[in-house]
Write a structure and sequence with these properties.
Elements: H1 19-41, H2 45-66, H3 73-83, H4 96-110, H5 118-128, H6 132-135, E1 151-154, E2 161-165, H7 172-185, H8 190-204, H9 211-227, H10 236-242, H11 244-255, H12 262-295, H13 303-315, H14 322-329, H15 333-345, E3 349-352, E4 360-363
């Protein structure tokens, strides 16, 4: 039995897990989710809108990055804004792939309560593969039908390692019908359903390509359904990307094991908690930023100072020193120093202890 893939087990897909351990972790994750929801409830509409757009952008970029596809963040963000109707003056990006993946994600979360059908999955798959060149190599917008084995492999040609072999293509339609019925009708907790559906989908591997991305899209759809909101304030794909090797390792172990999927369920919950906690940190920072500007509403700052202050709140890259201020603002070092000294005198910036030759400055609240 140990040499069998999970889908070859007699009772597949009757998964089981350690209820005590899983429900304990689920309770802890839901507590974190409640904290995030509470913080978001204190923010204004525009701040929440921006946070959601940033999270969706990150999710799209990182889900593709897991598969080795690099997307330009500005292009993705512009496409998200345009498709959400937030940038009515702009135009969509010319990159068909970006337009497609953004449309798939927004359909999944904005219409998360719609029944997931094979027709919707076929449409999503078609949007992921707009290039005619791909049409020659894989079947687009339909279940895979090749009689050849569908394998997940790594390594050089001739020395490949097979990590997983999916069910024969003839089994895919029936297996997907069972999965879609489960998604539509199972009464299992929504977060657990997202974990199970993702594992189940990538185990079937129903398409010739794009299974990972669509599996994570289904996951996001079910999490949005559970959250009861069309806004996404955390990114599971970003957290999975940060732990990519662990993600593939736990999937491989689970797919080569029995029907007890406790390890996968606990890993998924750990990942979700990490994603939520990261969002809490970012959102708390956003709230602190809003409070700062409210408290300094009557303080006079020049445009250079406003630019740098916002950059510091949003996550400044590297150390803030006089030379860097001058470079970012395209001004002289003397002007940069005067700007900085003015902010120090106003209590906005403080000098940070440094062993280097140049003085570093940070926000007073970060000191």
């Amino acid at each position: 039995m140990d040499n069998m893939y999970i889908w070859q087990q007699k009772d597949f897909p009757n998964f089981s897990w350690d209820s005590q351990k899983v429900l304990q972790r689920l309770s802890e994750v839901k507590f974190c989710a409640g904290k995030l929801s509470g913080i978001m409830g204190t923010l204004g509409f525009e701040v929440k809108e921006t946070a959601a757009m940033d999270s969706i952008t990150s999710d799209i970029i990182m889900s593709s990055a897991i598969e080795g596809i690099t997307l330009n963040r500005d292009d993705v963000r512009s496409s998200v804004a345009w498709q959400l109707g937030l940038d009515k003056a702009g135009i969509p990006a010319s990159n068909q792939y970006i337009e497609g993946v953004v449309e798939v994600m927004l359909d999944a979360i904005k219409n998360c309560n719609e029944v997931l059908t094979k027709e919707k999955l076929f449409r999503w798959h078609t949007l992921l593969f707009p290039s005619p060149m791909r049409l020659e190599r894989i079947t687009v917008g339909a279940w895979r039908s090749s009689p050849l084995p569908m394998q997940v492999v790594s390594g050089r040609y001739g020395r490949e390692k097979v990590h997983y072999e999916a069910p024969d293509s003839s089994k895919v339609p029936e297996m997907m019908d069972a999965l879609l019925d489960y998604i539509a009708n199972s009464s299992v907790d929504g977060i657990l359903k997202a974990a199970i559906a993702h594992l189940w989908f990538v185990t079937i591997h129903p398409f010739g390509d794009g299974n990972g991305r669509l599996g994570r899209t289904i996951m996001d759809m079910l999490l949005a359904r559970y959250d009861g909101t069309q806004n996404r304030f955390y990114s599971m794909s970003a957290t999975i990307a940060e732990n990519r090797k662990a993600y593939y390792d736990v999937l491989e172990r689970t797919q080569k094991g029995g029907l007890d999927i406790s390890e996968w369920m606990l890993w998924f919950l750990d990942c979700l908690e990490s994603a939520i906690n990261k969002a809490i940190g970012i959102t708390s920072r956003t709230l602190q930023k809003a409070v700062f500007w409210s408290e300094h509403s009557e303080v006079v700052f020049n445009s250079r100072q406003i630019k740098i202050i916002n950059m510091l709140w949003d996550g400044f890259d590297g150390k803030l020193q006089t030379g860097k201020w001058a470079k970012i603002n395209k001004c002289s070092n003397d002007t940069a120093l005067r700007d900085i000294q003015d902010l120090v005198s106003k209590g906005v910036l403080v000098k940070k202890e440094s062993n280097g030759r140049s003085t570093e400055y940070v926000l007073h609240s970060d000191n």
